[in-house]
Design brief:
Blueprint lengths: L14 E2 L16 E5 L3 H12 L3 E6 L2 H14 L4 E6 L5 H14 L5 E4 L18 H21 L6 E5 L22 H26 L4 E5 L4 E2 L2 H4 L6 H8 L5 E2 H4 L1 H8 L8 E6 L4 E6 L9 H15 L13
Helix pairs in contact: 3-4, 4-5, 4-10, 5-10
Length: 329
């Protein structure tokens, strides 16, 4: 079951883990291999911090130029860095399958997977290569499929963890099982919130299934608060209302390196709990040191989590042969 000690209710004051916790508190990552999705923003800062701690990092993304630039920046900062880029398009099941097959052929185990990459608020409905709505397909289904592809390696990894990045937008999210792909009605922010709620529910359900199947994998969710990344520039566009807000009100957004701290705490701290959810401690979980974050009530339904998992298996064609927990009514 989800570790109920890691749950705080929505609206509660976040429980600070350590008001001074920072990347300098990351324990040595020597001998550990991490896959991080996303070439910029939170993903880059996560990879950089792990490399500084001695970990080997694979930055996975669809844009080779951005990926190679991220690797070059990490290697310039950390002379002894072991970092490389791998092509991965989360909007394509074929690309995800290819990535999984490559990594399984190259490595015997994996210690850490950080499901971070995302697309946010394209103004018009778009679809992935497999016909899924772009936000739900990339942010959630892509990471669901990737995780199942890499489970064989994670099961063999020492202290293996899967960190799935959600968002404070999950608070307003709802899983519309009657219109998961937003074919009947597309509202960008509502669909984004659904995708991030699904990510949170996936993290909690994966922990339950790992425990039920004795896989030895710890699944944890995190969110970056409100951070200065290119997410609001990329899909909506730099000159969209949200893009303009990101550009002109930049001072309201904390640095990406700060936004990466909840993910890094979840990924590395011996105090991070399976089934936990971590975000910034201050100003409504928008900024500050990592703390236990509030899990929205709609993310706690075992019945909906199991139903979402079954939908996801059918849509992606991938199955984890581990029994799930008994769903609630």
């Amino acid at each position: 079951m989800t570790n109920l000690g890691a749950i705080t209710s929505v609206g509660a004051v976040p429980v600070s883990i350590d008001a001074n916790w920072s990347a300098s508190d990351i324990p040595s990552q020597n001998g550990r291999l991490a896959v991080i999705t996303g070439t910029g923003g939170i993903g880059f800062e996560t990879a950089l911090a792990l490399a500084r701690a001695g970990g080997e990092v694979i930055i996975a993304g669809r844009n080779a130029d951005k990926g190679m630039d991220a690797v070059a920046r990490i290697c310039a900062d950390v002379r002894s860095a072991r970092a490389r880029f791998e092509k991965l398009d989360l909007a394509s099941l074929e690309s995800i399958n290819d990535f999984g097959a490559r990594l399984r052929s190259q490595r015997k185990s994996l210690n850490l997977l950080v499901n971070n990459a995302a697309v946010m608020n394209p103004p018009e409905r778009k679809e992935t290569a497999d016909g899924f709505e772009l936000q739900f397909g990339t942010n959630y289904l892509g990471h669901f499929a990737l995780t199942l592809q890499l489970l064989p390696l994670l099961c063999l990894g020492r202290d293996a963890r899967v960190i799935t990045v959600s968002s404070i937008a999950a608070r307003s999210g709802a899983i519309n099982f009657e219109d998961l792909q937003a074919e009947r009605s597309y509202k960008p922010m509502r669909v984004y919130s659904q995708s991030k709620l699904a990510c949170l529910m996936f993290a909690l359900e994966l922990q339950r299934r790992s425990k039920a199947g004795r896989l030895g994998i710890t699944s944890i969710a995190a969110h970056p608060g409100v951070s200065r990344t290119d997410l609001l520039h990329n899909a909506p566009g730099r000159w969209s209302p949200t893009g303009m807000m990101r550009s002109l009100l930049w001072f309201l957004f904390q640095p990406a390196s700060q936004g990466a701290l909840p993910s890094l705490f979840a990924a590395t701290s011996p105090n991070a709990e399976g089934g936990g959810y971590y975000g910034p401690a201050r100003l409504g979980e928008t900024r500050g040191a990592p703390a236990q974050a509030g899990i929205p009530r709609q993310a706690l339904s075992l019945g909906n989590a199991s139903r979402l998992w079954e939908f996801s298996e059918r849509l992606t064609g991938m199955t984890m042969l581990v029994p799930g927990p008994v769903a609630d009514a």
